[in-house]
């Protein structure tokens, strides 16, 4: 299993250069059974990472470009009357794929955003009174531009909370950027990628993640982190129980990537910024969601050993 995970990370790294930490976070999110939000400036490789994950994992893939005129039916599908059969036939929308890239999700109206987020939560959609199951695995990667940019509809806290993790890719280091400039075009490399993991193996890895052991002392540490976020004055509000479960689940996934069957505090610390960044807000910040400073305060002010 560890060999499969390493080969997957290495394969993705041939396209997404110099971003091993972000690749590991994305895989942690997937094997933990959640959905991923990537927030960054345009042109930073968000779409490339999503497409590469689908190719390496052998998942069916579809990209939905979110715009202000996107309708829920454009995501979920629609029933069309067929004259030949004198009946309505359902035409599935792009949501019926295993890996969905919801590109620039915050450029669509709240109604269209909600259509996707309901599917994420329920793993099924109800259209015209009929419930239809979505494929398994079902993994949504949503990208959004910073809310300061024009033409965005910020996701409210309740919808942000549906994403297990939020990451940013950031600018590449000089060596990686030079490879992008002088090396082969990344899309050409992407087309040659072959699946590394079968869907059965992916399901086994996801199951193994749930079996990773968290000791009582480790859970005590997680609870202290959560409690501090709820009582410290610099936080507008604390982590919810769902946020606490997300932190523990991602720590287990990170431990599995490191070939360990138990969680250590370093696993919690590695995933904490990505898990809490979109769930917390500074008391003095009436607009934004979370910052690196909030995660750093938790890590420095909460002792590993109680």
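Q: What amino acid sequence fits the structure above?
A:
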């Amino acid at each position: 299993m560890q060999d499969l995970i390493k080969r997957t990370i290495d394969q993705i790294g041939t396209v997404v250069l110099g971003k091993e930490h972000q690749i590991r976070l994305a895989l942690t999110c997937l094997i933990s059974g959640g959905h991923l939000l990537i927030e960054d400036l345009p042109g930073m490789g968000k779409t490339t990472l999503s497409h590469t994950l689908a190719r390496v994992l052998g998942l069916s893939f579809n990209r939905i470009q979110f715009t202000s005129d996107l309708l829920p039916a454009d995501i979920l599908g629609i029933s069309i009357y067929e004259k030949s059969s004198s009946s309505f036939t359902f035409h599935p929308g792009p949501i019926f794929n295993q890996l969905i890239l919801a590109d620039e999700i915050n450029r669509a109206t709240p109604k269209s955003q909600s259509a996707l987020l309901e599917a994420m939560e329920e793993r099924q959609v109800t259209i015209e009174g009929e419930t239809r199951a979505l494929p398994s695995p079902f993994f949504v990667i949503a990208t959004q531009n910073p809310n300061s940019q024009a033409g965005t509809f910020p996701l409210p806290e309740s919808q942000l909370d549906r994403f297990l993790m939020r990451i940013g890719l950031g600018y590449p280091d000089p060596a990686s950027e030079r490879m992008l400039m002088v090396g082969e075009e990344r899309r050409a490399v992407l087309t040659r990628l072959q699946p590394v993991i079968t869907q059965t193996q992916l399901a086994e890895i996801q199951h193994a993640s749930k079996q990773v052991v968290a000791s009582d002392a480790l859970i005590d540490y997680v609870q202290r982190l959560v409690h501090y976020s709820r009582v410290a004055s610099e936080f507008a509000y604390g982590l919810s129980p769902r946020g606490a479960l997300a932190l523990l689940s991602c720590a287990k996934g990170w431990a599995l990537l490191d070939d360990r069957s138990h969680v250590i505090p370093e696993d919690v610390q590695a995933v904490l910024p990505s898990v809490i960044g979109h769930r917390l807000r500074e008391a003095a910040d009436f607009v934004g969601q979370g910052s690196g400073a909030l995660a750093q305060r938790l890590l420095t002010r909460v002792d590993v050993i109680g």
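Q: And what stands out in the fold?
A: The mean pLDDT is 89.
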